[in-house]
Every structure is written in C-alpha cells, then in structure tokens.
Design goal:
Helix content: 10-25%
Oligomer: single chain
Structural class: alpha+beta
Strand order of the largest sheet: 1-2-3
Radius of gyration: 13 Å
Number of helices: 2
Length: about 100
C-alpha cells in the first residue's frame, strides 16, 4: 500500500459517480503490462500490455472514448470482457513520463 493510493482511489470513485459506470481504474503501463494503481468496482488488476486498451490510449494526445467497444477495430486486442464502454486519458508526470 502506498500513501498516494487514497488520491487515486478518490479519482476512481468520483469517475464511477460522475459517469454512472460500474467500474473505474487508474492504470499504469510498463514494458510488459498494464496494472491498476487504483481499481473501483471490479476488474483485473494486471493484464498484458498488448491486450490492454490503455496501450492504445497512450498513443494519443487526447481522450480515447469508445461508446461501443465492439465497433472499434483497435479494441479487438483486449482480453475477453463484458465491458461495452471505455474512456481513457493519458496522464503525464511533470518530467513527461
């Protein structure tokens, strides 16, 4: 457990409330995986990077929003999921990470 987790947890809970969705996550990407620093409402904590919509999200400078995951061919990489909606936004640290 990390002291900053509460800040991330507030973000995930707020996203669920504001967007009226079943789950929300703040994910980090490393060389091989996407992993959840904060996860609210369920879901996998770690998935292979190549099978994550976060991997697509980080290639863009703006939000990546999929009202219907099945309608976007870039979403075909994801693992089996019952999710139908996805919204991701790349986050950057002050140093560009």
């Amino acid at each position: 457990e990390h002291p900053d987790d509460d800040r991330f947890d507030r973000v995930t809970r707020l996203a669920i409330e504001l967007f009226r969705v079943g789950n929300s996550a703040v994910n980090f990407i490393d060389r091989d995986r996407a992993w959840s620093r904060s996860l609210a409402g369920g879901g996998s904590r770690t998935v292979p990077r190549a099978r994550s919509l976060c991997n697509v999200t980080i290639t863009q400078d703006s939000a990546y929003v999929l009202p219907d995951i099945g309608a976007d061919p870039r979403a075909s990489v994801i693992l089996e999921s019952d999710h139908r909606f996805y919204a991701g936004l790349p986050l950057y640290a002050a140093g560009g990470e």
